[in-house]
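Need tokens for this chain, all 107 residues.
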Amino acid sequence: MNAKELYAWLERVEKRSDLGPLLKDRSLLVSFYSNAEQVCLEIDNGKLFVHNRKDSNVQVMVEADSYTLQLIWSGEMKLLKVPTHLIKMNGRYKDVLLIEALFHLSA
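Here are the structure tokens for all 107 residues:
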């Protein structure tokens, strides 16, 4: 899995001051899986981190092929609009909506 697009997304979000209120006072760990590889997106009180650390406290888990993840991270495809045969997702609906909004708004 190439997380280059996720890092590019992270840079776009950090440049946008209007997305800050969505992240303030939020803590969330999202794990993306593809081909037995994992990358995590962590939101911690308004700060964003991307890392490869395996963590058991994941609130949202997304598993898809690399191409689908690239489309999601770039904002070209909404997370909840991916056909169910291409993605597996676990997590609270409101957390999934937050992640989808961040990817879409920062595109």
